[in-house]
Amino acid sequence: MPTTTLRALNGLDETPASLADATLILVDYQNTYTRGVLELDGWQAALDAAAALLDRARAAGAKVIHVVNDGGEDTPYDIRAEIGRIHPSVAPVEGEPVVVKQVPDAFVGTDLGEHVDAAGHKDVVVAGFMTHMCVAFTAAGAYLRGNRPTVVADACATRALASVGSELTADQVHHGALATIADVYGVVVASEKSLG
Question: Of the residues 24, 25, 134, 142, which is catalytic?
Answer without folding.
Answer: 134
